[in-house]
Design goal:
Layout (H helix, E strand, L loop, with lengths): L5 H9 L3 H23 L2 H17 L10 H19 L10 H7 L2 H4 L8 H4 L3 H12 L3 H12 L4 H8 L3 H24 L8
Helix pairs in contact: 1-2, 2-3, 2-4, 2-9, 3-4, 4-10, 8-11, 9-11, 10-11
Length: about 200
């Protein structure tokens, strides 16, 4: 069953095959948690919301239209649930940075703007920089943080992001540009104070 495409698994699920749903769950579980965590920055919420995502997928599987990309549909549901949760808990206390969780689900070297001119591999060995990066991401507006996560962590194309967020490709490009710029500015003061080797 591991060799089946997403669409083939969905057809089996629609026919009542629970094993096919389990396969789809394990195929996307970590990526869903990663996206949710990139938005809500709360480990417990990320796990809980990811479970809710898959419950909603299962209950609404008959609404999936074969021929469309499954993971785009999945990400749209994930995004909507995560943003709703984030907005409802926006005033909650800040969550302490979880280094182990962050390392597993969203690698900072995937997110750091290349224009910073540092060696990400060496710089990200420092737990402090990881923490600063998480704080810098937290300071981004919700829409910018989401688009950074989808593009730099999950690797979605502009077209896929536009479909997930239901916006124009030009809007995707604009938000991504300003998100990277703001992230760089948020990190600049910290980086200027560090003895981080530059690229040759």
């Amino acid at each position: 069953m591991e060799t089946l495409t997403d669409e083939q698994l969905v057809l089996k699920i629609q026919a009542g095959d629970r094993a096919a749903f389990e396969q789809l769950y394990w195929r996307y579980k970590d990526r869903v948690i990663s996206v949710v965590y990139g938005i809500v920055h709360n480990r417990q919420d990320a796990v809980e919301i990811s479970q809710e995502v898959f419950v909603r997928i299962y209950k609404n599987i008959d609404k999936y239209q074969p021929g469309t990309r499954f993971f785009t549909w999945l990400y749209r549901i994930t995004y909507n649930l995560a943003v709703d949760k984030y907005r409802r808990k926006k005033t909650a206390r800040e969550v302490e940075f979880d280094n182990d969780y962050q390392k597993n689900f969203s690698s900072p070297e995937d997110v750091l703007p290349p224009s910073l001119g540092i060696n990400p591999e060496r710089a990200c060995e420092r737990a402090e920089l990881r923490q600063q990066l998480t704080q810098a991401m937290d300071e981004l507006p919700e829409k910018q943080r989401t688009i950074i996560t989808l593009r730099e962590v999950e690797g979605l194309s502009y077209e896929e992001i536009a479909s997930v967020l239901d916006i124009q490709i030009g809007t995707v490009m604009s938000r991504l540009h300003y998100a990277r710029q703001r992230l760089q500015n948020n990190l600049r003061k910290y980086l200027e104070c560090q003895d981080i080797p530059k690229k040759d």
